[in-house]
Design a protein that fits this description.
The structure is a single chain. It contains 8 helices and 25 strands. The protein is an alpha+beta fold and about 500 residues long. It folds into 3 domains: about 40-235, Beta Barrel (YmcC-like fold), CATH 2.40.360; about 260-390, Immunoglobulin-like (Sandwich), CATH 2.60.40.1930; about 400-480, no CATH class. An 11-stranded antiparallel beta sheet has the order 6-5-4-3-2-13-12-11-10-9-8, with helices on one face. Helix 5 runs antiparallel to helix 6 (about 420-430) and helix 5 packs across helix 7 (about 450-460). The longest helix is centred in the first third of the chain and has 27 residues, at about 1-30. The chain is elongated, with a radius of gyration of 31 Å.
């Protein structure tokens, strides 16, 4: 009996393992069919794409502003010969917050992935390739010469995600999907990433998916969105460009004389007001100009460990006046409740609306929580004073310390020497209260300071002439090489306490 019981236990154990493995295999395997999708029905990215097709998508991609939403519209204009290859040529317009970008992109015919086009569209073409056209990595029109070829909806799998721990991409279910462009009978392509189920919905004989919601692979924590999109509008046989009359806002920037080749050179590394976080920010250009674009790279770090990034950061960038009253919210201008950085690193850009002078930018951290959930902890912030210039390079003098005027008066009456006065002027330049372009300093040396400059200093000290007249005299000295003033550094690093403001 013991032998028989042992055999039954072994057999039962074996059968249990077999059943478990079989069930797991069924969960992993896909493949669907119906009257709308009979067995043998196949699809590939770009299926049915033709000249005159117009598409409008609302989309986001994790590598661009942490999945901030933008609209991507494109129209298939026709063929374009590139070397020995014939490609699709598409006209494109992107609506990204307050920005409009107009240009072209080339799409391959075997796989409709962008291979070139207008440089200003580069980041958006990358997002298009990695989201709307992403399934071309698994299903293409041509399976010869190592190509992927069309894939069947009844196939158990279309392939495997390339990242570590990636799962099989499987046709999971047939479902009716409604998006702004209409209602579609679709197959949901699905895979599991870090505990979250990603889905892309595709319709037979339609070139691109109509909807997607996917998640980034993470080893722990809540997976943030990787890309999300839906089809807003679709038209066929559009024979004339639908983008006539639409111009890039970047053209306005160029025509206005703005620098569009921006480098983020100014560094700010400080603790937040209440020492809850370390905030390391880079912004550019070095000289911020009213009406032109400004770009930020912000790192949110643990206060006691500057090598460890925070996760799930809800934040905003405010502009406040000298009394701490909020005048502007970048999140609101983008139609969002708050800005969001799941990784702790954020890139943001916007047009500077602040008048020439000193603007108070506030990086406000609401707290750490998944998007859509109100953080439970207290908020904290970092205020950064940024000099704003007019397009002609000028800036009103708003914050000249009283001791500078005292120095000017003492210098005018001979109480202090030239060196002491120059130190005060160096302070104005270092703090960017006056702007001296790097190329304007003269090469002369040893010349005496003209007497009219001292007269100006005395008149300025007693209020007879205004700040601008005095600064013009100082600029004259620097341009002529009579006064040498070192250029200010591009670093703004401090651990000192910030002044009190309205957000206490």
């Amino acid at each position: 009996m013991n032998t028989t019981l042992s055999l039954l236990i072994v057999l039962g154990f074996f059968l249990g393992i077999t059943m478990t493995s079989s069930a797991y295999g069924q969960i992993e395997a896909g493949g669907v069919s119906s009257d709308a999708f009979p067995r043998g029905t196949t699809w590939y990215a770009g299926e049915g794409l033709k000249q005159g097709d117009f598409f409008s998508y609302k989309t986001c991609f994790v590598d661009y502003k942490e999945c901030a939403t933008f609209e991507f519209d494109f129209w298939i204009k026709g063929d374009k010969i590139v070397g020995s290859e014939t490609k699709w040529l598409a006209e494109v317009v992107v609506y990204d917050g307050n920005k409009v970008i107009v240009g072209e992109m080339e799409l391959g015919k075997i796989a409709p992935e962008p291979t070139g086009g207008t440089p200003e569209l580069g980041v958006y073409r990358g997002a298009f390739k990695s989201s709307i056209a992403w399934l071309s990595a698994f299903a293409t029109s041509d399976g010869s010469s190592g190509g992927k070829g069309p894939k069947g909806f009844d196939a158990a799998s279309w392939g495997k995600i390339g990242n570590i721990g990636g799962q099989q991409i499987v046709p999971l279910e047939i479902t009716t999907i409604t998006v702004p462009a209409g209602t579609w009978e679709t197959v949901a392509m699905s895979w599991k990433t870090g505990g979250a189920v990603s889905k892309v919905w595709i319709a037979d004989n339609f070139p691109f998916p109509v909807k997607a919601k996917t998640y980034t692979h993470v080893s722990e924590g809540i997976p943030p969105p990787e890309y999300v999109f839906e089809l807003l509008q679709y038209k066929q046989n559009v024979q004339q460009s639908p983008f006539i009359g639409i111009e890039s806002t970047e053209n306005d920037q160029i025509n206005s004389g703005c620098d569009t080749d921006i480098e983020k050179e100014v560094s700010v590394k400080r603790s937040s007001k209440n020492f809850m976080y370390q905030i390391h920010a880079l912004y550019g250009p070095n000289d911020v100009v009213q009406g032109c674009e400004m770009q930020w790279l912000i790192n949110f770090l643990k206060y006691n460990d500057e090598t460890e990034f925070l996760n799930l950061v809800q934040y905003d960038i405010f502009v406040v006046d000298d009394k701490g009253i909020r005048k502007r919210s970048i999140a609101q201008e983008e139609g969002r409740q708050f800005l969001y950085s799941p990784s702790g690193q954020a890139q943001i850009d916007f047009v500077v609306k602040e008048v020439p002078g000193t603007a108070n930018y506030v990086i406000w951290v609401y707290g750490l929580a998944k998007t859509g959930i109100v953080p439970s902890g207290p908020s904290d912030y970092l205020q950064i004073e940024v000099p704003i210039y007019a397009l002609d390079g000028s800036m009103p003098i708003e914050k000249i310390p009283s001791w500078i005027k005292n120095n000017a008066g003492w210098w005018a009456d001979g109480t202090i020497d030239d060196d002491s006065f120059v130190q005060g002027i160096q302070f104005l330049v270092k703090e960017k209260i006056i702007k001296i372009p790097p190329t304007t300093q003269g090469k002369n040396s040893g010349n005496e300071i003209p007497s009219w400059i001292k007269n100006n200093a005395g008149w300025w000290a007693d209020g007879t002439i205004d700040d601008d007249s005095f600064v013009q005299g100082i600029q004259f000295l620097i341009k002529e090489g009579i006064m040498k003033v070192p250029q200010p550094t591009k670093s703004n690093t401090s651990s000192g306490a910030e002044p009190d403001a309205w957000y206490n």
